Structure formats: structure tokens, C-alpha cells
């Protein structure tokens, strides 16, 4: 029986192809509660306070997600090849991210930029990197 991959991006089991795993706080950032769009409001000088329309079916706001990845190679050359391959995948922009061991959601993300943190070991065979993504429509978590 095949082992279920920890993480898939654009259908690739990324550990098998690029030595990539989820880093610290990855699942927390990915699965945190969503924000709602602002309610419609009207503030008139003819009325006290303001009118707020609360929708019975609230809509989710887009969100920015900062994800921590780790990359492991067997040698400096292998590590560099895997890192460059993973970044090439990110630079395509449209990312379909899946965590099959957690749920069946497909997170439709857009790669935006590097995050605030990057670190590589002295042997040049491992690193962790934070990457920023946008999730334009958090209600669309299907293929």
C-alpha cells in the first residue's frame, strides 16, 4: 500500500521531488479561522449612530498566508537542485496545496514573495524558508 504524502503542491508529493516538508506552524497558519468581509454600513447625519447590514450568509475576505517550509538534500549539490526546483514551482504563481493526511481541501494559493525568515545549515544540505501566499477566495477549497 502506498504511503499518503505529507504535502502535495500542484499534484507533486513535494518531499519525493524536492525534499520539502512543512515547517513550524505550517498547519496553524494554513487552517486558522477565516476573516469575514466588512458589513455594509451607512452613517447618516439624519439618524443616530449608524446602520449596519448583517448578511445572513457572510462572505469571507481574501487572506495572506505565511508558510514555513523545510528543504533537505543528501549533499550540497542535491540540496541546491531541490531548492531551485521547488522555487521554480513557486514562481509559476498558481499553487494548489494539499495536506492529504489532514483533510481533502485543495488550497488555491498565489505565490507572492519570500517571507521574513530564511536559514541554511553550515553543511548546505538543509534550510527552512518562509513564503508568502495570497488565498483570493478561502471559500474555494476544491480543485
Explain this structure.
- With 143 residues, the protein is an alpha+beta fold.
- It has one domain: Elongation Factor Tu (Ef-tu), domain 3 (Beta Barrel), CATH 2.40.30.
- Helices cover 19% and strands 37% of the residues.
- The strands form two sheets. It has a seven-stranded antiparallel beta sheet. A two-stranded antiparallel ribbon has the order 4-5.
- Strand 7 (94-98) and strand 8 form a beta hairpin.
- The radius of gyration is 20 Å and the shape is elongated.
- The mean pLDDT is 92.
Fold blueprint:
Blueprint lengths: L7 E2 L2 E2 H5 L1 E3 L3 H6 L8 E3 L8 E3 L9 E10 L3 H16 L2 E5 L7 E15 L5 E10 L8
Antiparallel strand pairs: 1-2, 1-7, 3-6, 4-5, 6-9, 7-8, 8-9
Task: Describe what is shown at a glance.
The chain has about 140 residues and is an alpha+beta fold. Helix content is about 20%, strand content about 35%.
